[in-house]
């Protein structure tokens, strides 16, 4: 099976700034590699601060006209964009799998997921309703109006290169904002393809601009946006340290921020749970994208009386997973994104074993005829995990399940909340009273109850504590790209 795409216009290979597809200011290029082989297969511009400022120039100039476009017309453009994304689902899915490494079925699925946000916010564009406030005195009218914040800078991660950029750009455009965006250096091609389709759908020049940059040059690109008072909002998905940096650096211009940051999700299996359902839920939540998602369960807690039975069922499922490149149609786990990712996974497993954990299945790199590349790691189950281990304190971001035995509900709630993060949490129970107790006790922005697949365009996605603030998706997602203007008109009588 090949991952070559048919429509070569989906790989423009340049920045889009205003109406022009252009090279970096100094002509430098950034190589894009296939994580399955570490081979270079494309390149994009390696942007500079000057490119970033030019993108803001274009977005700022386009903002007055775009905000004046009636919401219904903005919605129609977004719907055309949605239709084009779905029409190119196969090519986009192949592009995602090629540059990110996930199995092709997941690549195709991500395209549909990305499109769902575009469609959702196309519809929400016409529902940005304000309020009429009952006046406390006669002769006065009081209104709350919703208006676009202005130029939005979107900075996206590598693990979902289509979904993450769509989830940020779609509400920004729906609200009447203009956008400058920078995709992750590992996966710029999918984002460029989506922007090309948006332009084809009728997004006017300057309304949506994209600048690609290497890891080395990303700080100068992003700092140019942080320093520019014309950029009124930053939306970022990525690590908590970077999110904190963005919050600090944006303080001088008091930008609005949406930060979807790191997680350390607990997955709790109580003794009254349906164990087969819990195993299926964990497989769905943990092994999607090879464990490289921010809402992946990172700490699995199983009540003592069902611990051994659960681990046996889980190990059987994990051991049967097929690892390989997206060119193998039956692959369920692809390569990790790069060597740094594999080294971190390996370090976490080694640390856990040194502290008393035991490998039940997996636990090592894979290199064979099927996995003929340096970035594969075997899906792994560890038992006897505890809170002292690195895998309990940091996101592993890989296919590793550390299992911890617990005795009581109070004990596991305390352990689950004993983290600075609070993005997602999961638990399985059939006790209705326990379900509500635990749901309310978990310190998390998202809770899955007897469910491992949480994300949906209609649901608010975001965290608490050091997992950030702001919400993406849902009826709440549009508000993060708008501000409220209070209007008071007097002397009406």
UniProtKB/TrEMBL annotation:
The keyword Oxidoreductase applies. Its EC number is 1.2.1.16, 1.2.1.20, 1.2.1.79. This is Succinate-semialdehyde dehydrogenase/glutarate-semialdehyde dehydrogenase. Residues 21-487 form the Aldehyde dehydrogenase domain. Belongs to the aldehyde dehydrogenase family. It comes from the Bacteria. The active site is at 260. GO terms for molecular function: glutarate-semialdehyde dehydrogenase (NADP+) activity; succinate-semialdehyde dehydrogenase (NAD+) activity; succinate-semialdehyde dehydrogenase (NADP+) activity. Keywords: Oxidoreductase. It is an enzyme of class 1 (oxidoreductase). GO terms for biological process: gamma-aminobutyric acid catabolic process.
């Amino acid at each position: 099976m090949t991952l070559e795409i048919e429509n070569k216009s989906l790989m423009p290979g340049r920045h889009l700034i205003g109406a022009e597809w252009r090279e970096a200011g100094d002509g430098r290029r950034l190589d894009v590699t296939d994580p399955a082989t570490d081979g270079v297969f494309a390149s994009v511009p390696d942007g500079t601060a000057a490119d970033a400022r030019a993108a803001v120039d274009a977005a700022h100039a386009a903002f007055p006209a775009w905000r004046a476009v009636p919401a219904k017309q903005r919605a129609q453009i977004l719907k055309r964009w949605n239709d084009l994304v779905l029409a190119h689902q196969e090519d986009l899915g192949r592009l995602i799998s090629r540059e990110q490494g996930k199995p092709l079925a997941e690549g195709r699925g991500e395209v549909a997921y990305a499109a769902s946000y575009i469609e959702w916010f196309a519809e929400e564009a016409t529902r940005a309703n304000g309020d009429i406030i009952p006046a406390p005195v006669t002769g006065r009218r009081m209104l709350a109006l919703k208006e676009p914040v202005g130029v939005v800078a979107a900075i996206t991660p590598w693990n979902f290169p289509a979904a993450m950029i769509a989830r940020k750009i779609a509400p920004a455009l729906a609200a009447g904002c203009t956008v400058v965006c920078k995709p992750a250096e590992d996966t710029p091609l999918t984002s460029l393809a989506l922007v090309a389709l948006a332009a084809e759908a009728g997004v006017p020049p300057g309304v949506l601009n994209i600048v690609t940059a290497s890891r080395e040059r990303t700080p100068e690109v992003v700092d140019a946006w942080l320093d520019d008072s014309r950029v009124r909002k930053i939306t970022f998905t990525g690590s908590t340290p970077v999110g904190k940096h963005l919050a600090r650096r944006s303080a001088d211009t008091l930008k609005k921020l949406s930060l979807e940051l790191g997680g350390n999700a607990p997955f709790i299996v109580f003794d009254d749970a349906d164990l087969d359902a819990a195993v299926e839920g964990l497989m769905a939540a943990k092994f999607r994208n090879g464990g490289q998602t921010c809402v992946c369960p990172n700490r699995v807690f199983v009540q003592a009386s069902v611990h051994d039975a659960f681990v046996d069922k889980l190990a059987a499922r994990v051991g049967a997973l097929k690892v390989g490149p997206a060119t193998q149609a039956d692959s369920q786990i692809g390569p990790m994104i790069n060597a740094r990712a594999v080294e971190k996974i390996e370090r976490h497993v080694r640390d856990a074993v040194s502290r008393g954990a035991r490998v039940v299945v997996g636990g090592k790199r894979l290199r064979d005829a099927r996995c003929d590349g340096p970035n594969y790691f075997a899906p792994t189950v560890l038992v006897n995990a505890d809170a002292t281990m690195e895998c309990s304190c940091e996101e592993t971001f890989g296919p590793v399940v550390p299992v911890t035995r617990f005795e009581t509900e109070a004990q596991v709630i305390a352990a689950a909340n004993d983290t600075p993060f609070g993005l997602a949490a999961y638990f399985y129970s059939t006790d209705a009273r326990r379900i509500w107790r635990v749901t309310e006790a978990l310190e998390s922005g998202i809770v899955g109850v007897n469910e491992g697949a949480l994300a949906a365009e209609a649901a608010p996605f975001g965290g608490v504590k050091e997992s950030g603030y702001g919400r993406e998706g849902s009826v709440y997602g549009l508000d993060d790209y708008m501000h409220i203007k209070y209007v008071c008109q007097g002397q009406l009588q």
